[in-house]
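As a warm-up, study this chain.
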Amino acid sequence: MSKFLLEPKCAPGQVLDVDGAKTDNETNIHIWELGQGIHQYFKFIDAGDNYAFIEACHCPGKVFDVKNSEVKNCTNIQLYEKNNTDAQKFKKVDAGDGYYIFKSKLNENFCIDVDNSGKNNGTNIWLYECNGSDAQKFKLINNLDAAIIYAKKYAFARNPKYKNYEGRNCTNFCSQCLVAGGYLLMMSGIMKNMHLLIHYI
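Now compare it with the structure written out below.
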């Protein structure tokens, strides 16, 4: 799988998301409704010893990072330039039923976790002691499946965030599906009809 979404078991339909599609060091990572674009997609890069870097597809070279390498509950996980420290290395562990846990190389007793099993846009992710909860289990969704999920959700219930073109929405809807599948990047965070920038295929 070349790129993927990470859907927490505690919040179906939500996925890990780089805040505002920013590329700066220390940009926050949280959860957000699937369908926002390429900044919700990630890649695994081998880090040796069964660990991997989790790289953001919209800004190659930036990866998940445990802030200040602090091993304690509620330490923030952010985007940061890859520097080969253990704070940026995670082990993918099968949790069953198609879900995975991501353990930190800093201490394998700590995992990537959704703040208080939250389900809303903007809920933070952080490092937390591994406890087997659904807040620590993630499903990997590839880009084709993401586009299909989006299409099924909004085929007969228009997404209100996009303009209604009064009977001429077919091209716009196809574009939305491509954004959800990570093939297109919304310009300025807002897609206006076909004013799109092809970013990653």
